[in-house]
Amino acid sequence: MRLFEEIVARLGLDEEIVSGEKYVVFPGRCAYFENVKGIRSFSSAAVEVRIGKIFLRAEGENLHVRQYCGGDLVLFGDVRKVEVVG
Questions:
Q1: How many CA within 13 A on the CB side of residue 80?
Q2: How far apart (Å, rounded) are the C-alpha atoms in residues 57 and 59?
Q3: What pTM does this model have?
Q4: Which among 30, 42, 68, 69 has the fewest CB atoms less than 10 Å away?
Q5: What DSSP state is assigned to residue 13?
Q6: For 62-75, what is the mean pLDDT?
Q7: What's the pLDDT tens digit per position in 34-53?
Q8: Mean pLDDT, range 76-80, rounded to an integer
Q9: How far is CA 11 from CA 14, 26, 43, in A?
Q10: Contact, 12 vs 24, CB < 8 A?
Q11: CA nearest neighbour of 68 among 83, 86, 47
Q12: Residue 20: CB partners within 8 Å, gap ≥ 6?
């Protein structure tokens, strides 16, 4: 079972699906992204990741990558929003 499904199952959360790709946000704490192909930009205020053919931008404060392995990325900090960008 992938980490995303495990998180959703344990917390009883609804999945948030963007163009068939998965991510989950715990506002003010962290965000988890599945199937990440790369990081386009990174700062403590914003991170852009490529998932498939789209880019997602996470915004917040004190952002830092806690884990990036096998396509899974865990972003810690005060994550306030995630949106699709061009």
A1: 7
A2: 6
A3: 0.76
A4: 69
A5: P
A6: 93
A7: 999 999 999 999 999 999 88
A8: 93
A9: 9, 11, 29
A10: no
A11: 47
A12: 52
